[in-house]
Protein 1
Amino acid sequence: MTKLPRNERVRLHPYVDRELGKRLAEYSAASGIALSTVVQSALRHLDRTSDTALILRRLDRLGRADARAHRDLELLSEAFAVWVRLWFAHTPSVSDDAEESARRTAERRFAQFVEHVVERFTGGHRFLDDLPREVLADEVELSSLAAQRRSPAPGDPPTGTDGE
């Protein structure tokens, strides 16, 4: 960071709590960067619209993912309700003497159903995969975000990390 002439700088006297002041002094001493430079870099960080834009894009993506999950849940709930209505409409009542046989048949058929669901689920293809999906981000957007994240803002002190 280039040092500004005295007449272009403004002296500030902010108060911070003791623990934060201690952490700031330790960071400054460990990194070999003057306190003023660390504070100035932190204040410049407040103006960085790239971080704000990145956070807003990520929040937007999370909101879309949440909306999709909500839609999927509503769809599955409605599909289940339709299935139950059809089942009640097409399943006859069982007489008392056939009840035990019907129970055994139902348990066997339910076990087959569970086995089929497990096969479909572990096979990687699901019913919801057949529905159209909203694209979260394309490769160009993801690459752009990664590049923005890697490049430090002008005047940032070197940290040796990715800035977090």
Protein 2
Amino acid sequence: MHQVPGQHPQPHGAQRTLPSLLRHFLTGTELTPDELRRLLERADELKAAPLSSDALHRRTIALVFQAPSTRTRTSFEAGVTELGGHPMVLRTEDTQLTRGESIRDTAYILSRNAAVIGIRTPSDELVQDLAAHASVPVINMLTGRHHPCQALADLMTLREAFGQLRGLKLAYVGDGNNVARSLALVGAPAGIELRVAAPDGYQLEPLPGVLLTDDPREAVAGADAVYTDVWVSISDDPTTTEGRRTALAGYRIDDALLDLAAPHAIALHCLPAHPGEEITAEVLYGSRQRIWDQAENRRHVQKALLELLVDGRS
């Protein structure tokens, strides 16, 4: 994992002393392929024995939410508790950020009271600023451009389904958003072949090892897994909602599209889902998906990530 010198060298109270070099998790690219492999193996162990680790015993983990959340909040809260720690959940309105306090000052204060800071916010710049001034590890729980914790759970789910990752063909159908970008950035080091099908104006930027197409049938052909996300995200401009639905109407996962994939193919979705839009109810709740395992796996990979960031375990 990429390491950067701490920006704020003063001690942070009762939290246990951390290594002198901070390890943030902001885009997922901080993990080396070997670290990623070991993290996923550790997540499997933690899933098999959820209460086997006390890596966060008597430690506080600050979880800052500037956007609503179901999976991120519940998985992080439950995971921190299972590791023996205390999840300090802070909504924007709970902090002085709403009254103009700087993210720099917020980083200083949270670093004095928590062993790790997780943040969910639309702003990538805010997360970068937080990491620049924090003296403890910072985790990007979601931003407008990146969703790396989700990508870790996606890889864990694929390993569960197929036993390995290298050589798997993953088709992503729909808006080339933060989820698609994180799949590309985190999946490539694991050896996954990603194909992204999206209409003009909604496509992911070119990234190494990613096939971009406007044809969902081309992306799905022979794929081991077919992935989608909502057409309208919370960070999207409300005035563009109908235009987005019109543009993406041909990018729905249904049984007919899934039939073009490999016979053993599974459907994935990061949730929340809107049945009848990006995915049909038949696929979402049917036997050809691993979506609910995928949601649960957020907790297990995030526990493995917290161990790595706090204690250097992997």
Protein 3
Amino acid sequence: MRHRNSGRKLGRNASHRAALFNNLVTSLLTYGRIETTEAKAKELRRFADQTISWGVSVHALVAKGEKVNATERAKVIHARRMARKTVMTRQALERLFGELGTHFASRKGGYTRMLKTRTRKGDAAPMALVELVGIGQPS
């Protein structure tokens, strides 16, 4: 029985699953939209929303720039370090705390959207698009 065991295993061990979701979240933050299987997309939303919430939580402090005191600076550093556990590239981390943090500041969750798209030709896996709500593709 799977009592109190949330999440899908996706046929991977724990470290492989963690690496998979870290890479998917990084790609989602970098490109704004990715295509993956439905099962991965449903799980990805949990990780992506949790990571984006770190950028949203300190967006006001980041916007103040150099005018923050020591405790506020510590909050920003803590948020960046927590997000860095998931986000693998500096480019995606900068986008998270710059553009995305301010964009999603007025929202209380629900930063991603999943759209079912097609069936993959090779193995008939149901595919889905995962995209950031209200964000176009980066230029």
Protein 4
Amino acid sequence: MSTEPLLPVYLLTGSDRPKHLRALRRLRGRFAPEAVEQLSAESSSGEDAVAACNALGLFGSGGGARLVIVEAIDRWRKADVEAVAAYVKNPVEGAVLALIAEGTLRNAALVTLCEKHGKVLRYDVPKSSSLPTWVGAELKRAGVNADAEAARALVELVGDDTLALAGEVEKLAAWAGGDAVGCPEVEQLAAPGREAAAWALTDAWGARDLPALLEACELALEKKEPFLLSVGLASHVGRVRAAQALAEEGLGTKEIAARLKMKEFPARKALQHAERYSRAELDSALVRLAELDAAIKGASRLSSELELVRALIDVTQPAETPATRAG
């Protein structure tokens, strides 16, 4: 796009948003900043987009150029598409219209017109089963020396949001500086894309870091009810207990993940946490979290927040033994 002559209209479709942004960056680079106008189909109609393009013909200087970008055109109605379709047949010289579809286009006529009078750029992310391959390609593009396991770990940690994944790829590239990146580095540096507060809570519990756990709890309570946090932690402790038992049978991470029907990254996390707790401690934690569930549902007169904090302290501190009681 950077060397070929500019066309009057570009249509960007598909689910690969990072590639959309890179294509737009290249396109923007061919215009002066003041000659670029950004619109959104949420607040701008097809007629608004046409008017922005026509502004060059009315007020622009002879050697000028203008780029009009319209996001989320898949939300436009029939009248909006018809207005743009009529313009595309007779565009203003020097004006470039860039249309961005975030979802599926319901009107195929616009695609056909853009193919005829401009260019359609289709960028699709592979299915979730192939997403690690896509991430591997993004890592390679960013100059990150990472193996397939690191790419898979990044997907498992961040999720399937390609923009979030692209951001984490750039972060890894800046940190690595050409050095190799593996699963440990991904797990240390990448930010969980979904349920970040819950991840912080379970990670602090798994590390037996009570100050970090109480801090994570305070932050998590800003977004979630105590009941949901207690259910999430109880579920995690149950997985840790199950992973510990399977590891004692001699199963590896992949086999444990398959047996527990989870991805490898959370299975590795569960095994790491299991190393810091005995079987008796995990059993006691599950009992204590069941008591917390009853307390939150009405068995206690204390606030749910206070009951949650008390339970977190109980399930994180080392179990009391006869020797410690005697001391």
